[in-house]
Amino acid sequence: MTPRSESQIKADLEAARADLSDTVEELSDYFSPKANVERAKADAQQKARAFADRAQNTVEQASAGKPEAIKKVAAVAGGALLLGALIVRRILK
Q1: Domain residue ranges of the chain, discontinuous segments joined by +
Q2: N or C: which end of the chain has fewer CB within 10 A?
Q3: If you average pLDDT over residues 16-43, what whole number do you get?
């Protein structure tokens, strides 16, 4: 192994400092409460969009007369009616 020159050692140290600085910034972002809230918000929005897309697809399939989709829409409608009835019952007590 050939000995390194002073300039090579300095260059290696600068590269290591830059890597360390990048790592500290990444960790800071990862543990930042604000960044975590933004990531959770983006994740929730993505999941909500995917759910809405699936629901719309199911309704479209039900409109086209597909039996499985009709069953799903009927089950959701029945659940919504039941929930509404339970809420009304709770309010009237």
Answers
A1: 6-92
A2: N
A3: 93
Largest CA distance in the chain: 88
- The predicted-structure confidence for 35-48, as pLDDT tens digits, reads as follows 999 999 999 999 99
CA distance 85 to 91: 10
Chain-centroid distance, C-alpha 26: 19
Are residues 30 and 45 in contact, defined by beta-carbon separation less than 8 angstroms? no
Sequence-distant (6+) residues with CB within 8 A of 69 are 58, 59, 60, 61, 62
CA terminus-to-terminus distance, the chain: 87
Residue identified by tokens 């009927």 is 74
For residues 40 and 58, what is the distance between their CA atoms, to the nearest angstrom? 27
To which residue do tokens 């959701």 refer?
Answer: 76
Is residue 73 within 8 A of residue 83, CB to CB? The reply is: no
